[in-house]
Specification:
about 375 residues, alpha/beta, Rossmann fold, 2 domains, 7-stranded parallel beta sheet, 6-stranded parallel beta sheet, about 20% strand, globular
Length: about 375
């Protein structure tokens, strides 16, 4: 029996978290739909599923844990993706983040999906962790990439130059298959420039509460600055992620808040207002793809303190729109924060330059156009 022809207008997004799809890929999906594509989104169940449906997008539930270690469960996930691809026969499957990329590309290869787009929004935990086991895991992932990415009609999107160069250096794919698109873009009409509010300077770390986001170093820096007599507020804004091995326990976050050096605001939906209330945005991460929170901070006209690591240094230009510090060290972080806390004029100058950069280089409209160009190539014979 001959294989069914692909549904030549269907783009299927496969993402391991509905909330991540909404925050990072929804504008792209809606733009693709406006261009005449059919769009379906496949994620595990979660809080964002109803909003995906409310946006007028088709939805399919998939079992896709981010930290699964049960081999049988992982094989079942690949099998279920294969069955989904065979059923829907999409023109393009767009995988987002590492596990969908690995499992989904394998399933797409067996199911003979017409075209595959893989978005690697950062090389992930396995490339950050240390030790012999992590070294073996990295080698396994790279070997998998080389085989999976060898198929025709496949494109890989990375968000920063470091990841781009690394994958080419490790010969994971040829240059004609890799695209550098710097982040998910920022809506400069939603995140608008605003003047600083009065009162104590507020330093905000926005993001999931993960150790490798530099949460521990941020708390230590706040403690050091308070001991020095620096008057400022420090807020952790983001939820916990219990499925991530780097998740900071809620009890630890609550303990820090009780001690009084930092505040923990939890997950928030009013981020434009939070950036507007803040005086400094801080992200002392160990590695990133290209952090959306820093794009939003720049668009809002806020000075940034971030680590000099892949992803962050794509956005922060030292001395221009922010300050860069070494990763995993709290003392340089405290020094950089103190410099901005005590210098409002420098903060405002950096904020203005950040806004100009966001408008010129990171507008969401530019990012969407780059993706739609890739989709158009998938239509070519």
């Amino acid at each position: 029996m001959s294989r069914a022809l692909p549904n030549n207008r269907l783009i299927l997004f496969v993402v391991n978290d509905a909330g991540f799809f909404l925050s990072h890929r929804l504008p792209l999906a809606l733009a693709a739909k406006k261009q005449g594509y059919d769009v379906c989104v496949a994620t595990p169940p979660g809080d964002g599923v109803e909003q995906i449906k409310a946006e007028g997008l088709s939805y399919r539930q998939v079992s896709l844990s981010r930290s699964g270690a049960n081999p049988l469960a992982e094989l079942r996930t690949i099998w279920n993706l294969y069955r989904l691809y065979r059923e829907l026969q999409p023109l393009i499957v767009h995988h987002v983040t590492i596990k969908p990329v690995l499992y989904g590309t394998l399933a797409a290869r067996v199911a003979k999906v017409s075209a595959v787009v893989n978005a690697i929004s950062g090389l992930g935990f396995v490339f950050l962790a240390r030790g012999w086991f992590s070294a073996i895991a990295r080698s396994a992932v790279l070997t998998s990439y080389r085989w999976l990415f060898s198929r025709k009609r496949l494109w890989v999107i990375v968000q920063n130059r470091d990841d781009y160069d690394y994958l080419l250096e490790k010969e994971c794919l040829s240059q004609d298959k890799i695209e550098l698109i710097r982040g998910s873009g920022v809506d400069v009409d939603n995140f608008v420039m605003s003047t600083e509010s009065d009162g104590l300077p507020l330093v905000v770390l926005p993001g999931r509460m993960l150790w490798d986001k530099g949460v521990g170093e941020f708390v230590e820096a706040a403690q050091q600055l308070h001991r020095m007599g620096i008057k400022a507020r420090f807020a952790l804004v983001g939820g916990i992620d219990p499925n991530n091995p780097e998740s900071v326990p809620a009890v630890r976050l609550a303990e820090w808040a009780r001690e009084g050096n930092v505040e923990w605001w939890g997950n928030r939906q009013d981020m434009p207002e939070i950036y507007s209330d803040a005086h400094i945005i801080c992200l002392p991460s160990y590695r990133e793809g290209l952090p959306k929170v820093l794009l939003e901070a720049a668009a809002t006209g806020r000075a940034i303190v971030a680590t000099d690591v892949p992803g962050c240094r794509e956005i922060v230009i030292e001395g221009e729109n922010g300050l860069l510090v070494p990763a995993r060290e709290s003392r340089p972080l405290a020094d950089a924060l103190r410099r901005l806390i005590t210098n409002p004029a420098l903060r405002q100058s950096m904020g203005q330059k950040g806004r100009a950069m966001a408008e010129a280089e990171f507008s969401i409209h530019q990012v969407i156009e780059r993706h739609l160009n890739i989709y158009q190539r998938a239509l070519e014979p």
